[in-house]
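Researcher: Structure for this, please.
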Amino acid sequence: MRIPAGARLPAAIATVVIAVALGAVFSNGGGSAPGESAQRPAPAFSLPEVRDPSGRVELESLRGKPVVVNFWASWCVPCRKEMPDFEAAHQQFGDRVAFLGVNHQDGRTPARDLLRQTGVTYPSGSDPDGKVAADYGLRGLPSTVFISSDGQIVASRTGELSRSELDDMIEKLLLQKG
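Model: Predicted structure, token format:
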């Protein structure tokens, strides 16, 4: 069947719209829930602590415990909004789940100020070059990665998480065998 020349552009646009819609349906909102995707090893990292540059934030030191890694920056409005919920979750689950922040492509002073303003107490590493996010294949902030106790990425999410979404993801992470 031959498509008339005048109908080719609308047909092409419709094809693109359908492809984008299918992509949105299958992308799961910028991430995956624990157990819904193929697991892969979490890249190790060691970063200077935002609050104390002589200290280190190291993923490997937490092996044996599930970990929630939140990538954030002081200039990121959704990051700022979700950080108090991450601190509340840290207070609730902190004995069973480790929390780490990765300050992405940001200055140490504004990062320290935001941690103080939002009340975040869990460790945050400074990554001014954005290498860790690149190693994890992340695009966009905030991004959160859920890592099993045996060091496997079991879920990730790009975009602001509500407290209930965060709690649900953590509960699923705690059910992971590792």
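Researcher: Any notable elements?
Model: The longest helix spans residues 5-26. The mean pLDDT is 85.
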